[in-house]
Every structure is written in structure tokens, then in C-alpha cells.
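Milestone M4 deliverable, item 7.
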Amino acid sequence: MNKTGILFIGSSGYISAAAMAGAFALRKGLTARTGMVTDLPQFSGLGLIEPEDFVFGGWDIRSATPLESAEKFFRNGHLPGYEILPNIAEELRGVTPNLYEGVSTNCGAAIEGLSGNRPETSTLREQVERLRSNIRDFKERSALDEAVVFNLASTEPQIADSEWLSTPHKLEECVNENRVTAVRASTLYAYAAVLEGCPYINFTPSNGALVPAIIKLAEETGVPVMGNDGKTGETLVKSALIPMFLLRNLEVLSWEGFNILGNMDGQVLDSPENKESKIITKDRILGKVLGYSPHSRVHIHYVPSLDDQKTAWNFIHFKGFFGAKMSMQFVWQGYDSILAAPLVLDLARLAEFSKRRREAGVMTHLASFFKAPAGVNEHRLYEQYQMLLDYLNNARSGMVEG
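Output delivered:
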């Protein structure tokens, strides 16, 4: 089994802290694998790397250590995990030497302000080479066979379609010519990861990450990649619920979503340019599944006192027999990072498995984990999950034949 590490982009964030704390707690038998998809029976016998065996590291533009982030996360959320922190504090401290200074190039004022407004003076090429050097150092430091790069950073503003991001050659020119406004930090991280042969997962809505140039480069160099925007709450429910209206031939007239959240994600999404990226990935599923576009609007509001808690209220107005108008409402309440952390471990296990199988390009079988899955037009949850099961069955067949 390959010794594998995970490099988090946004290593000081709550999701990173929850994922690391969860893996260390599993190592010591202090928690169960509840919430991990890969712990279901369908995944047995594949030889997936055990989540407690991961080695962790990452980048951030802030200075909080994993232990500090975990303490703040569990304390502010009044979570039971706070009681086990003393038992995994040493492991969390052990991650600190594997942390590197991140980049925030062209990410907008909301994100760049988190770094204390330190200006980035190095060129794009220097930044890419620095990130690549960090990856190599991380792998050498822990004698790793593989490293998965995981984007958990705050949501960047949307980046317009650009000729510079269309092919690997164009992206290389863009970096060499230091065309800063043509890329985002997420582009640089993804570029460095693929150049170093690391599977790359974009768990954020940031559309600068898996641009065509990155996907084509991954295909050419034998690197599996996937994204975008982890599906953990409201959109998860929508992807399971929307097909019900189709199956009952009920016409959806409008679907309104109201979201309130705290933590750093909420703070960054309070900026209109960053919020736009999130709204796009949350709202597109309705028309994709229904085949028509009813009135729909997603509202996102920052409520500092909620910290990592998130509440989503949805109002669905629909029409039935005789044109009768009826409605349905649901409320989803949860801890954003608690929902996301086990999925992070799932995706890292499956990404390493794909790399070991010498797969390349977009891992479309992982569509059920994302709001806007790259390379996939299927948005119904059950059908997406069936894609994953079909992949697993094919993988098993290959193992038997081999």
C-alpha cells in the first residue's frame, strides 16, 4: 500500500481541522466512521488506503496551526470532539512542520485581507515553482509514495473564460509572461499539483481551479482530478428531492433557498464577488435536473454568531392536477465542516486509488460528491451514486482479471 499524504489548500480552516482531527481520532479508536461514504459495504475489498494512515500538510495565508484551528472549531461549536482533543493534540502539533505559506494571487480583497494584506511580490512562475518545491519537500520529509492536493480554501471570485486557460501550452505562456490577471491562486495550486503528478480535488466553487488547461494537462500526464464544490447540505437534499417532482409529473413553479452561516467561509461569502461563485454552483442544479428553469433564487447571508453551523430553508412552490398550486418546505441544519470532513477523507482515498490504477483526467465517477461535477451532466443523486457503484464493480472486475 502506498504511503500517502494530503496537502490542504486552506490548512488553517475548519474543514481541514475537522478532517485531520477525525483521522487522528480514528487512529486511536476515539470516533466512528459515521459520515464516510467509503465505509459502506460496497467499498469493501478494494484495498483503499485507511483514513487513519494519511499524513497531513498544507498551505495557508493565515498562521493558525492545526491544533489552534481544531481547538477553536470544537470549542466554538460546543462539539463533543472537544473532549478528545487532548488525546490527539500531539498528532495535530506534528502537522505544523508540514505547513507552507500559501498564495492569494488575484483572489479579491476579501481573501487577500486574510493574509494581513501582505503583497505578493513574486512572479507567477516563482509562485508555481515554490508550490512545486513545497510538494516535493512534503513527500520527502515523510517518505511518501503519493500526495493528494485538496482545495479547501475560501471561495474566489469567478474568473472569466480566457484563451490563456484553454490549453497547457497557453497556461505555460501565461505563467511565463506573468499575466497575473488571467489566473487565480487556485489555478496556480492546481497547476503545481498536476505538474508534480499529484491527484487534485477542488472542493470549492472557485472556477479558476479546474480550467480546461489543467484538465488537459492532467489527461496528458496521467493525473486524476475532480471537482467542483463539495455537496454537503442543501444541494445534497435538492439533488435527491428534485427528481421526485419529475417522477410524479408535478410542475415546479419556483424554488427559493435561504442560507445563513458563520465561520470564515461565511465571512468571505459576504463579499458579493466571492458570493457569486457559490450561488452559481448551488442554483444550477434545478434547471439541469428538471429540464426547464422555474423561478429560483439562492440567498446567502453571513451570521457571525453561527460559527460553523449552517441553516438552509427552502420553499418549493409546485402545481398539480387541475392546476392546483401547493408547496413544500424543508430546513437543513448542520455543521458545515462536520459534514464535509468525512467526504474529504473519502475523496482522498478514492483519488489515491485512481492514481494507483493509472487513471487520468476527470474522475467522473465521483460526481455525487459535488454540486457542479466536472465533466458530468447528471445531477440526480441516485444516478450519480450509481455511476460510482458501476466504477467500483469495474474496478473489482479488473482486480479479479489481473
